[in-house]
Every structure is written in C-alpha cells, then in structure tokens.
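Researcher: Please predict.
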Amino acid sequence: MKRFQRGYADAGHPLPLYSASPEAAADVPKDVRFLTLSIAFCLATSFIDIPLLKLSVSAPLMYMLFLNILRRPNGVKLRHGIFSVMIIFLFLSMAMSSVVNTLFGNATYTLISFAQTYARYAYWILCALIACGVFYRYQIGHSVSLAFTVGITCLGVLLIIDYLVFGGLSSTKNSLLTDLSKNDYAFQFSTFLPFLFYPIFFLKGKTRIWGIVGFIICLLAIVINTSRSAWGTTLLTIIIYSSLYGMIVPKRGYRLFIGYFAVGLTFWIFLMLPGRFQEAVEERYQSIENLEQDKSWQIRQLMIQKGLKLFNKNPWFGVGPYQFQSIRTELDIPQALKYEHYTYFDSKSTHNSYIQLLAEGGLSMAIPFGIILIILTIKGGRAVVFLARQGIGWPLSLYTGIVGMNIHLWTLAGLTSTMPWFLYGMMAAIINLAGRKKKTRRRRRIRF
C-alpha cells in the first residue's frame, strides 16, 4: 500500500485522495491493471484487430476484465446513480425499438441479426458499467491516461510514416499500415489528443518531455491528415483545456506557454516538409469556402435529411437499430450529387451518430442518451474542476477528450463502438468520486 501511494504521489497527486472508502484506497490487482491498461492502449490506437474475425482486441480484453471483476467479492456494482439508470433504460429502449419495428415496422431482422443487435448493445452498456466500476473502485486513472497518451502517440507516428514513406492513404482511402481511414484517424485524435495535456501541465521530468514530444507528433499528424473535423475539434479542445486550466490553477498559468510553444514548433516543422503537404492542406482549407460543391459535405447533409425523414416515420421508436442503411428513402439530391440516383446514397453511412440514434431508436433512445450527455457535461465539468483544484489533473483531459469526441460524432458514425462508452463510464466514475470526496470533507468539518 505504501509503495502504491508513493508512486501515485510521485505522479503529482496529493494523498490521501480517495481514502474515504477502503476499497477505493486498495492496491489495484495486477490482472485488473494489466487488462485495463491494455484496453486503454487498444482504444487509443484503434487498429489492433484479431485476424480473420475482424474484431477489435479490446472486446475480448473487456470480457476478461468483466469476468475478473465479477469473481471478486464486491463484483460489478450498478449503484452509480442516474447514469446507470439511464444507460440501462437506453438498452431497454433499444430492445423495445427492435420488437416494435419487427412486429409493425419495416425492419428486416432475422433471428441471427436480432441476436447480434442485442449482443452489441449489451456489450457497449457493459463497457460503460465496467469502466464506471473500475475507476470508481481503483486508483488507476493516472496510469490509464498515460496509456492513452502512448497509444495515440504511436498512432500519430504511424500516420506520419504513412504519409512520408508511402505517400499518404492508399487508393482505397485507407492507411497501408493500419487500414484506418482519414476519418478514423481524425476521430482518434479528436478524442485522445487532450490526454497529452495531462503530462505537459500536471507532471514533471521526463514524463512531461515525452508528453510535449507526443503532442507535437500528434498535432503534426492532424495537420497533414487534412480532416476538417479534426482541425476544428483540435482547436476547440486546446481552447477549452487552456481556459479551464488557467481558471483552476492561475498561479501555474505560465505553463500554458509550453503548450503554445509546442504548437508553434509543430507548424515550423510542418513548413519544413515537402511542398505537397502544404498544397494538400491549403486545398482542403479552401474547400471550406465552397461547401456547396464539396461532395463529402453534401453527402453528410443528405444523410441528415434521410435520418430526419426516417425519424418522422416513427418518432417514438425509430426504424430499428442497424436499419438506417437497409430502408429505402426518397431524397432530395443536391446539385453536387446529381451524378447518382437516391438509391445509391441509401447504402451510405449516416456520417452522424446523433442522427443515426434518432432515426433508428426514436425519442425512446434519444432522450436517455441526451440525459446521459447532459449529466456528463454539467456534473462532469464540476467534478473535474473540483478534482483539478485538489491536484488531480487527468480527469480534466478526460473531460476535454469527451467534448472533442462528442463534437466529432456529429460528422462520423462512431457511437457504435467501444471507445465512447468506455470513456462515458470513466466520466461517470469521476462524478461519483468527486461527490464522495465532497461528502467526506463535509463530514470532517462537522466533526471538528
């Protein structure tokens, strides 16, 4: 226990932090630590899959973590307030939407697809509850945050190598090294880049230096990847994090100049790259001024139109999970997309997680999910500010990363994956931990 506390204190954390609960102050079991850190690294890199099965390595690791926790005395607790209530209600709403659309709608579920739909949603709900339980029970957030930084830095290195050595993405628009698309890369950076702020602003020594190096690598990768969504979310997360940090620890506001220096150094390195990189970025930037002729932007708007039409068909239960691309809908094709019939675009991805949820699940799924986002945004913001003032910095990166992820979900159908639900569970744990810390402080004041 003393060895664990010394390590935690060396990371910049005052002690005792969560000693109000004996189980929270307990050493993290080695198997739980290994599995959680492995999951964190896999989520940040995103491209590590099981051959032939097309299944992310994080999935079996998550089930192993679940079984590991389940066999322990306290098991998996569901007493995490309204978060657990809403997330379970979301799963029940999904089930109701599937049943209603199978009986009365246009859904084309087979027995196998029906079971697969249930299994996927059950897995995501389980990911959120497991993350909430693990981070509420164990002091492992510092290590997991650093695992995120290692994973996203590795991804940035691979993307830079892909562009410098192999000339960029292949003809299939996927990376030759990782098989990720430009949008996949952008989604990862929008979510995990803020975790590099943690070692830069809260830690010291070699860890801070490596944090700065990783930040420069990832920022350079974001620029040359030419994803407009990632450009926007990166700028916004930098502004949000620096604003919150300056408000929370004004005496250490000078550390923000480290981040600004890293940004300037990144753009200097970018200008040293071959001219084709500058030309690609300039061309992508100029496309923002002419979105009416930009096909990718118009397709996204077209899918929003389709999603709203599907929602109007059944506002309460939608058209059923995983049915967005199966249902044919007559669309008003914009001029830039007149080269194809509307049936061609029916098979396209939604490119918008929120519209997909609204179209497939209706208000029955959109309302509990909206409540979850409101809770994590408002209560989560208060919790990370409170903990950061106590010297606990990694939740601030988590909060900023979730904000960047949620914004990016407006341009990408990424909600149906492990990463968002795991991070939502982490933030729910932070809210509960901050609440417990506040109660402990009030009790001590009453006693004395």
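Model: The CA atoms of residues 236 and 404 lie 7 Å apart.
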